[in-house]
Amino acid sequence: MNFLIIGDIYSKSGRDVLEENINSIIEENNIDFIIANGENISHGKGINKNHYDFLKNLGINVITSGNHIFKVKETLEYIDSVKDLLRPANMNSYNKGIGTTQFDFKGKKIRVTNLMGKSFMEHVNNPYEVMDKILENDNSNIHIVDFHAEASAEKLAFAWNYDGKISALVGTHTHVQTADERILPKGTAFITDLGMTGPINSIIGANPEEVIFKEKTGLPTKFIPCENKGMLCGVIIKINELDKVEEIIRLQIK
């Protein structure tokens, strides 16, 4: 079974490059199941219902997120009515939404879990405690985790801790794709960050002008999404009939 996992989709540029390329990626790589991080899809922060529907219409099976999941208030109105849009499972338990979901798909039980790191991020609960509880009741054949975190070492430590217990851990959030895709010793596929599906000539999605102004002056500044040519970033993970990861392939498509 072949999984396509797409990095943080950023605003219109990200939507456009995704829409332009997803069908050819699916056909050329015999993709069975698609996961995409959608927390930046609506003008750079959050995911409104229209853009949730946009992703579902493209064939995305599960949409993951991160610290910006509730930046659009409309998300609070519909997230409980869907089971394929995840917020980090270790967020405050009073928040709406779910952080892990499981599907019966082509004879396999596929679980997708979304977690958030603690270093340099908004407060969340201990991801190890939350993950251990999820695994206690997990009977999936394939389990893929989107770990939304700032620090590369935190992502790697988490992946090593669960090596052999999950199928894959992919990092998101930094919007910069890393070149360290690998299969860990006990069989878990890993990449520190999938990268951003969004505008190439930008600073992690935003216009350079506003970002530079804030860096120089320290004054509060509203970041405006770039709308130039986009690049699609992510990975393809191939899992065999014995539920073992055979390959992880990094994608960059302009």
Automatic annotation (TrEMBL):
Fe cation 1 binds at D8, E39, N40, H175. Fe cation 2 binds at E39, N67, H148, H173. Keywords: Metal-binding. Coiled coil: none annotated. InterPro entries: Metallo-depent_PP-like (IPR029052), YmdB-like (IPR005235). GO terms for molecular function: 2',3'-cyclic-nucleotide 3'-phosphodiesterase activity; metal ion binding. This is Putative metallophosphatase.
